[in-house]
Design a protein that fits this description.
By secondary structure, this protein is of the alpha+beta class. The protein has 6 helices and 11 strands. Helix content is about 50%, strand content about 25%. Strand 7 (about 50-60) and strand 8 form a beta hairpin. The termini are far apart.
Length: about 270
């Protein structure tokens, strides 16, 4: 805030003001050139841009009785309308100090409703609740709380050490689970490979057996088709060979040697030619 006492003044685009005459409200001032009567009139100017305000680090106790250190940051601005500017001057003495104190008080309450584990993962929820609560209070002061962020949630050292050990144990457990899962999958793959290899060998054996059976079938068909008559001829040749070995006489016909007409065993009649 700045106060103008001179007769001529200028309000910049991000400023709004009020003018008082003998200590009483006279009017609302927009950006631009302004005039006043010195001593009788006074102009008070408010910067309506966003103001970045720290929520100082402070210890808070969670729902499960753990003391943690938290801090944050918020963005607050005065409203740009006449009523809001008047409220920033007449409804609160120092709005920045008032908002900071209000934020710290409600921050303790927000964390007091949560356990430590809930607090560590609820930054956005706490910030949203804090913004809503602050906006409801500061609207009467002509202020707008645009945003609230929680920057730090710092547990005690012993809690951090315990959390670190828990995290390490969890990582080791996950690592062991992944290793066991990998070994199980590898064994399953080996088992599947063995089954597939056995199936392949069985299929190969079946193929070989089927090939042999087919070969035997073809040989039998060939023997049936081509060697039945040859077997009879072979028998005849064997009979002829036997007959010749016994010095038997044979008859040669127009169909060849006929062992069925052997004459060696028949009586021979000699015809008288005289």
């Amino acid at each position: 805030m700045r106060t103008v006492y001179g007769p001529v003044f200028v309000l910049r685009p991000y400023e709004r003001g009020i003018q008082e005459l003998l200590g009483r409200y006279r009017g609302f001032l927009q950006p631009g050139l302004g005039f006043q009567i010195p001593i009788l009139q006074v102009t008070r100017v408010r910067d309506v841009r966003e103001h970045t305000m720290d929520i100082r680090p402070q210890p808070v106790i969670t729902k499960d009785n753990v003391e943690i250190l938290v801090d944050g940051v918020m963005w607050v601005r005065p409203g740009t309308d006449e009523d809001s500017i008047k409220a920033t001057f007449y409804s609160i003495d120092d709005w920045k100090i008032a908002v900071a104190q209000l934020a710290m008080t409600n921050l303790r309450q927000e964390f007091g409703n949560l356990t430590l584990d809930e607090s560590l993962v609820a930054r956005e929820l706490i910030a949203a609740n804090l913004q809503r609560i602050l906006s409801s209070y500061t609207s009467d002061w002509g202020l707008v709380v645009s945003k609230v962020e929680i920057r730090l949630i710092d547990p005690p050292e012993d809690i951090k050490l315990a959390m670190h050990k828990q995290k390490t144990a969890e990582q080791e457990r996950r690592s062991m689970r992944l290793l066991a899962t990998g070994e199980f999958e590898a064994s399953e793959q080996q088992k599947l490979a063995s089954i597939q290899r056995a199936e392949g060998e069985r299929e190969a054996a079946i193929q070989v057996a089927q090939g042999k059976a087919e070969a035997i079938r073809l040989v039998n068909e060939a023997a049936e088709r081509y060697f039945r008559g040859n077997a009879q001829a072979l028998k005849l040749m064997e009979m002829t060979e036997t007959s010749l070995a016994d010095n038997a006489k044979i008859v040669i016909t127009e169909k060849g040697i006929s062992p069925t007409m052997l004459l060696g065993s028949l009586p021979v009649t000699v015809k008288d030619e005289s």
